[in-house]
Every structure is written in structure tokens, then in C-alpha cells.
Amino acid sequence: MFHEGMQVQCRRVATPINPYAVCSFPFPRKVCGLPVRRGRLWSKTHTWLTLSVHQNRLIAGTVNALPSFVNRSELHSERSDAGEVQSLRTAHYNATLTMVKEVHDDLRIMRVVTDRRFPPFQPGQYVALGLGDWEPRVAGVDEERRDPQKQARLIKRAYSISCSLFNPSGNLVRVADFPYLEFYVSLVRHSERRPPALTPRLFALRERDRLFVESHAAGSYTLESVQDNDNVLFLATRTGEAPHNAMIAELLARSHRGQIASAVSVRYQKDAGYHIAHLALARRYPNYKYLIFTTREPENLDPSHPRFCGKRFLQDLVASGELEQHTSIPLDPTRTQVFLCGNPAMIGIEMGGSIVPAGMVDELSLRGFRLDEPHLRGNIHTEHYW
Ligand SMILES: Cc1cc2nc3c(=O)[nH]c(=O)nc-3n(C[C@H](O)[C@H](O)[C@H](O)COP(=O)(O)OP(=O)(O)OC[C@H]3O[C@@H](n4cnc5c(N)ncnc54)[C@H](O)[C@@H]3O)c2cc1C
Ligand SMILES: NC(=O)c1ccc[n+]([C@@H]2O[C@H](COP(=O)([O-])OP(=O)(O)OC[C@H]3O[C@@H](n4cnc5c(N)ncnc54)[C@H](OP(=O)(O)O)[C@@H]3O)[C@@H](O)[C@H]2O)c1
Questions:
Q1: Is 29 in the same domain as 100?
Q2: Is 186 in the pocket of ligand 2 (CB under 6 A)?
């Protein structure tokens, strides 16, 4: 543990300070003008620092003359720090990450098993995941300002419960029948409002690591208002397809009679993490279609590309009639339920609930669709992620 007056040596040329003095958590962004990154102080010269410590936490430091002798036992040891982290994890965490599928560096599918049986939930619902402020963050994301008062806090965010769709034998399985909870998560590297807190930590997790899962699922983004003969259109941006996977598995498993289509808007083709499973579903179920629309591939951005088509925003495809053609689902509000999930700009609802022009809600309202209201179900259902 750090203690008042502790001395640490910074080595030369941007190497971490010696391993006995790792400032693992929590730490300020700079000590004596030296950056603290990935839990270590970085220095281009030999520097000796006396650390200022408050309640066992590193707060700041002052630069010293090089001492002739340093007692290593006075320096912070990784082992004692690991011990404190371990006890925080034991106190707060109640679940284990059992599988990670890296779709790519910024996108992963994660399977989690809770210590206690997770209570029943509806397809489409979400649950909060959490990790401690003390956990490491991946590199290449907005830096956080560390608040010494919040060093032992748990950071929690909502995540829709996704669905693997098939079991290892290739059979379609309802979401609640899998022996784990599945999540489909984007790494947020940069945000205008505040540095992302949880995803940089979720992406540092490895299989068998522990985390927090809220005790029950929540949310009203479910199939409650869908009748057996309704056509159902699921429209999402990237990880917004997570709850749709669970709902689609449910509808197909209960032999839904109406047409079902899922369309996902992604920057790049590689962002479609469930593509293969959906194509297999579409082959097996004639009333199901799956469509991917990209926005940043060369054919979206380069007018000289032979297949140039511009950005393919979902609401533009509704406006042009292209989505109806591709899905074969007529946009008839008497027979169709529409689910919108993900980026609020696609959905077209601001924080606080007001409808903004040029979003999907605006476009569908022109065609006679009605948004859900608190005590009145409509045929547009929404889940916006921020
Ligand atoms: C009901 C609900 C369900 C959610 N389900 C999922 C899910 O299944 N998968 C998932 O990846 N996220 C989901 N989110 C978003 C999630 O809760 C976090 O906000 C997100 O993972 C970022 O967390 P953060 O702490 O890193 O950054 P935050 O501080 O929470 O967010 C910083 C900023 O990142 C942007 N942002 C947030 N989420 C996303 C995202 N998914 N894609 C692109 N940009 C984003 C926004 O601009 C936001 O202001 C859901 C949110 C809600 C409300
Ligand atoms: N996808 C990547 O390869 C990538 C790479 C590095 C970092 N990230 C980070 O990952 C996080 C999530 O990115 P994301 O791509 O999953 O989510 P996103 O930004 O919500 O984008 C998902 C899809 O929604 C589209 N979209 C954006 N605004 C829209 C609007 N007004 N109407 C309709 N559609 C709209 C996007 O098109 P646009 O092309 O217009 O955005 C994209 O196709 C972000 O923090 C991002 O910085 C992503």
C-alpha cells in the first residue's frame, strides 16, 4: 500500500517506474507533471518522487534529490495492491465472464454466468453490468479524470440481453433457455459529453474474469403488443440488434405467422457480429429476412466507386420505399409493429422524449404509425442507448 512519504524511482526514457512502485489504482492523471498511464508513472529521466498519500490513496508527489539508499520494503508492492483489488472484486462481483467473441477490436459478444440463478425475463429486456472504478481500462480511449472520492465505486450501465440464436447442435433456442446471459457491446472510445467509463473496462476483461450483474432484468421493450399475425420489423444501429436477436428467437420458436425482418445499420460490414447466424435463420425460416446496410464502406463514401450508393441510413430507406422492397413487408400501420433500437439519431427521439425531424419516428408517423406512450401502446417501440 502507498504510505505518506513513500519514495519511488522513475526510470529513464518512458519506461514505467520500477515494478515495486506501480501506482495501480486509483491514481491521478499526473504526478509532478509526469503522466500516469496504465497504472504507471512515465518519466524520461531518472526522477525520485515522494508521494503524497491520503487514506491509502496516491494523490500527488514532489520531486526529490536522488537518495543514496532506498529500502525496497517501503515501496508499494504489486502483491499488496492486488490483494486490495481482489477483496473489492470479491465484495462487489457476482458473475463470471465465460466467453468473449471478439468481432473486432471495438466490438465483442460476451457471455456471462451469474453465481445465482438469474430470474426469468422477457426477450428484449436489459440488465445493468458493472465493474469497479479500480479496474484497468484499454488503451486508445478518452482519458478519465480520476476522482479520489469515487475510487471504490462500481460503474454500472444498461445492456440489452442478446441471444446466441443457435445452440451447439444448431437448433434455434429461446434466449432464456441458454445457460448464460449474452451481451453485444461496442467499445466507446470517444464521447462528446464525458469520457466513457464502463466499456474501456469491459474490453479489458478476459474469460474467467469476474464482474457485477444486476439482480434482475428490466425494461418494456418487449414483444408484449405483438399479435401472431402481425408483421414485425426490427430496425437497429450496430449493437442495437442485441434485444432484437432475443425477440426474433422467441417469435420464430413460437412459430409466429406474420413476416419478420431485421435490418441493421453499421458503419462497416465487419460491424455485423451476428450476420452468419441470421443468414442461417433466414435460410431455415421462410418468413424471416435479415439485411445489413453500411454507411462508411467505399461504396457509401466514394462517388467514383462502381457501386456507389451513398450512406444508407435506415430512415432514408423507409422514405425511398427501398426497405419495403427488400423486406417484402408493406409499411401498413394496421398490420405492422416496428421496433427501433440503438443510436437516438436514427430513432429520432431526443433525451426527454421529444421527436426530432428526419429520424425514423418522424418518417413512420407520416405513414400513420404511432409511438408507444406511457399508458397507450402504439406500433412503434423504441429503446435508445443514449
Ligand atoms: C436500455 C439500454 C440498453 C443498452 N444496451 C446496450 C447494448 O446492448 N450494447 C451496447 O454496446 N450498449 C448498450 N447500451 C449503452 C450502454 O448502457 C453504455 O452507455 C455504453 O456501453 C457506453 O458506456 P460507457 O460507460 O463506456 O460510456 P457512457 O459514458 O455511458 O457513454 C458515453 C457516450 O457514448 C455513446 N454511446 C453509448 N452507447 C453507445 C453504443 N452502444 N454505441 C455507440 N455509442 C454509444 C454516447 O454518445 C454516450 O453519450 C444500452 C443503453 C441503454 C439505456
Ligand atoms: N464502427 C467502427 O468501426 C468504430 C471504429 C472505431 C470506434 N468506434 C466507436 O464505437 C462506438 C460506436 O460506434 P457504432 O458504429 O457502433 O455506432 P453508431 O455511431 O451509433 O453508428 C451505427 C450506425 O448508425 C448510423 N447513424 C449515425 N447517425 C445516424 C442518423 N442520424 N440516422 C441514421 N443512422 C445513423 C451510423 O452511420 P455513420 O456512418 O453516419 O456514423 C452507423 O452506420 C463509437 O463511440 C465509435 O466512436 C466504432
A1: no
A2: yes
Atom of ligand 2 nearest to the CA of 296: 39
Cβ neighbours of residue 23 closer than 8 Å, sequence gap 6 or more: 2, 17, 31, 36, 39, 40, 41, 58, 76
Residues 6+ apart with CB under 8 A from 54: 148
Residues 351 and 271 in one domain: yes
The average confidence (pLDDT) of the chain is: 86
Closest residue by Cα to residue 222 from 83, 124, 297, 356: 124
**pLDDT at residue number 350:** 83
Q: Is 0.70 surpassed by the pTM of this model? A: yes
Give the number of the ligand closest to the Cα of residue 103.
Answer: 2
For the cut 70, the answer to whether the pLDDT of residue 81 exceeds it is no
**Does residue 142 sit in the same domain as residue 169?**
yes
CATH number, domain at 190? 2.40.30.10
pLDDT at 73: 35
Residues lining ligand 1, CB < 6 A? 126, 157-160, 183-186, 188, 191, 193-194, 196-199, 219, 239, 242, 383, 385-386
pLDDT in tens, 215-268: 999 999 999 999 999 999 999 999 999 999 999 999 999 999 999 999 999 999
Which one of the ligands is nearest to 236 CA? 2
Position 354 scores a pLDDT of 85
One domain for residues 239 and 308:
yes
Q: Which domain holds residue 281?
A: 231-384
